[in-house]
UniProtKB/TrEMBL annotation:
It comes from Fibrobacter intestinalis. GO terms for molecular function: 3-isopropylmalate dehydratase activity; 4 iron, 4 sulfur cluster binding; metal ion binding. It catalyses: (2R,3S)-3-isopropylmalate = (2S)-2-isopropylmalate. Belongs to the aconitase/IPM isomerase family. LeuC type 1 subfamily. Pathway: Amino-acid biosynthesis; L-leucine biosynthesis; L-leucine from 3-methyl-2-oxobutanoate: step 2/4. Binds 1 [4Fe-4S] cluster per subunit. Catalyzes the isomerization between 2-isopropylmalate and 3-isopropylmalate, via the formation of 2-isopropylmaleate. The keyword RNA-binding does not apply. Its EC number is 4.2.1.33. PANTHER family: 3-ISOPROPYLMALATE DEHYDRATASE, HOMOACONITASE, MITOCHONDRIAL-RELATED. NCBIfam families: leuC (TIGR00170), PRK05478.1 (NF004016), PRK12466.1 (NF009116). Its cofactor is [4Fe-4S] cluster. This is 3-isopropylmalate dehydratase large subunit.
Amino acid sequence: MGKNLYQKVFESHIVAKLPSGQYQLFIGTHLCHEVTSPQAFAMLREEGLRVKYPERTFATVDHIIPTTADARKRPLADPISEEMLSHIEKNTKDFGVRFFGPETGEQGVIHIVGPEEGVTQPGMTVACGDSHTATHGAFGAVAFGIGTSQVADVLATQTLAMSPLKTRRINFTGKLKPGVTAKDVALAYIAKLGVNGGVGYAYEFAGPVIEAMDMEGRMTVCNMAIEGGARVGYCNPDEKTFAFLRGKPYAPKADKWDEAVAYWKSVATDADAVFDDEVEINCDELEPMVTWGITPAQAIPLNGNMPRIDEFQGSEQKVIREAYEYMGWEEGGKMIGTPIDIAFIGSCTNGRLPDLIAAAEILKGNKVSPKVKLWVVPGSMKIKKEAESLGLDKIFKEAGAEWREAGCSLCLAMNPDKLQGRQISASSSNRNFKGRQGSPTGRTILMSPIMVAAAAIEGKVTDVRKYIK
Ligand SMILES: CC(C)[C@H](C(=O)O)[C@@H](O)C(=O)O
Ligand code: SF4
């Protein structure tokens, strides 16, 4: 019987079976950011340990870093942010870990930096103290988020105690219509399977829709696996994967390339592999999706209606009621036409170059509504540079948007970028939880970056398809 990618990669990384029944799993690449690593490095210091494989550990600063050039001057105005940044600088220096800091021109959101540096590769195990680590699964890696004490485990031993997950393949069949993007695919599977549908599972994203997607789109789909409860989400590696990695700083060099590709091909899911569960989602009729509530699963097609509270029962009804109470919409209504205050294009979900190119195409020749602020925040310094070489910054600025420096920005608002009061944000990020964007009463509507661009033009949730040239 054949195996799927998850099973092959998990099995090939087992170091030992533990008395607990778990496995000690080798971690190929360990990614760190400033929020979840300081205590882990402190634990190492306390125990007098070193980083076991510093060459397999990579770090950047993303969450706390301000996104204007002025505010990035040191020391940072916020003392806690300055402390976090100083810690990761010192820790990476003392322990011999590569730090993609602002001075190197390689800083960015960790899930964007890993692939762009080529440290994320097929067939690897990738761990990071961050819940959106499945993003790296787009390359055919088994990638998952870990907690701070596990960050210390990986630093000290390059291994983790893990139990294998069950596997579910989601086959996306059909073809996406113009204006429908990877983000809509992500919101659609989460809406269908629920926020807890993937608990205990690794999701394999497969089928013609995934095959037709570029690597950036696959990263968007994998990025949101955790929003559907799946700690691991991945796509099988193919020629697009290899083409993306070729020539990246940490990708295998010419003399090792063919050997690497042969290994990468070997980890792909076998034709006769068996999954614990399989689901099909036909995408022929998929519309641009928008969230209406306070979880990413509370998403509807743009022209659809929000649910009625009495369609649900028990705890499900409670969640729906809570969402309406927080968001303040009328039950059963439509999201299209909802006025917005802030529009945000960025994050590890949708802050990559093709996202910015597509958003710029919508904005070109149009103006951002005077009632709205549009922030465009590239996911990394490299993306910012590439975008500028294509003249995208000019298009954004001419339309009236702010073109900012790389970081997590308004996705989580751990930096100065925050909503105020009850403001409503149209956001290309991945979480619409209560208070997520920095104001305890602020409201977030998740959508694709092109939908955000269209909403910024009209000052309300609208159909991007009328702007597609
Ligand atoms: C701060 C970090 C630990 C957190 C995560 O784990 O995902 C953040 O990146 C998020 O998106 O909420
Ligand atoms: S961009 Fe958002 S989701 Fe991604 S790592 Fe940063 S805070 Fe988390």
